[in-house]
C-alpha cells in the first residue's frame, strides 16, 4: 500500500509541476482501503494546501448521476426509455420521434447551450430558460444523425425526473442515491445550499487559449496568468447537465456502488455502460458512450465514467472493469479553450493512475 501511495503521489506532484494549481485524487482498488491524495493548492494566492476535504464543482460528471436517477424511474415503471419525450415536452419539434434514451446517448440533435451560456453572470437560471436559450441560439440537427454532445438533453432529463416525482431532481438523487450510499459531501447546486467555504478556488488559465469556447467578458485582468473564476458561473446555469458539488471520495463511493450493481439492476446498468456507440469529445480520449457514461481509452485500458469541465474545475472519473480499479481525479485549473493543456492535460495523469494501479 505504501508503494502504491508513493507511485500515485509522484504522478500528482509531476502534474502540479507542469503548472496546474491543485489536484485531488481518490483511488479505489479491490480489497484495499481507498487512497485519498492531493497536491498543490486549494487557494493559489493564500497558499492554502489542497486537502481531501476540499469540494469541487464536478460539472458534467453530474450526467452520470442524472442518468442513474432516470434509470431508477425506469425500474420503478414510471418511465420507458423507448417512449417519446412528447409526453413531457409536446412543444419540442419532432418530440414524437425522440425516445427518452435519445436524451441520454447524445443522439438527439437538440441545440446545445454550453457555448452561448454566459460564463460570468449572477442570473439564477431555470431549466425552462436554459432550454429556451438553446433553441434560440444553438444549432439543431436531426435526431439519430450521430453523436453530438448534448447538455440540453440532460436538462430535459432532469425535468422528466421532476415531473415524475413531483419534486426537484435533487430530491430524487438525494433520497435514492446520496443518502443510501452515505454521500455526505455531495450537493446539487441548482437546488441545494452547499458550504462554499469548503470549495477549492477555481482558476482559469490564460496560457494557451488560442481558440476560447467561452466568453470571459467582464473577467478583468488576470493575475499571475489566471483569473479567479470561483464566483463566475452560477450552477443553475448548468442545471442537470453539470451542477453538482462533491469530493473525489464521494464520487468514487457512487461509482463503486453503480458498477458493482448496488444501485441499478442488471438491465438498466447494461443500458448505461454497455449499450454503447462510438463517440468523441474535443481534447479527450473518449471513444464511446452509453447513457451518462463515456468510455475513455488509455492505451490498453478502457475506463468507463465521465469527464467534466466548468470554469475553474476539471474532472475525470471512471472504472476499469478488467481490474476493478475506480478513480476520480479533479483539479482547480481550467481554460476557455477545449484544447488547452489546462483542460486536456488531466488525461495523462489519469491514464497513468490506472496503469500504475495494475502494477504489483
Give a verbal description of the structure.
It is a single chain. The protein is an alpha+beta fold. Helices cover 29% and strands 19% of the residues. It has ten helices and 15 strands. The strands form three sheets. Strands 3-2-1-14-13-12-11-10-9 form a nine-stranded antiparallel β-sheet. The chain has a three-stranded antiparallel β-sheet with strand order 4-8-5, covered by helices on one side. A three-stranded mixed β-sheet has the order 7-6-15, with no helix packed on it. The radius of gyration is 19 Å and the shape is globular.
Quick synopsis:
By secondary structure, this protein is of the alpha+beta class. It has helices spanning 2-16, 62-75, 101-104, 127-137, 151-165, 169-178, 248-259, 266-273, 341-344, 347-358; strands at residues 22-28, 35-43, 48-49, 56-57, 187-188, 203-205, 226-228, 244-246, 277-278, 286-289, 294-298, 301-310, 313-320, 325-331, 333-334.
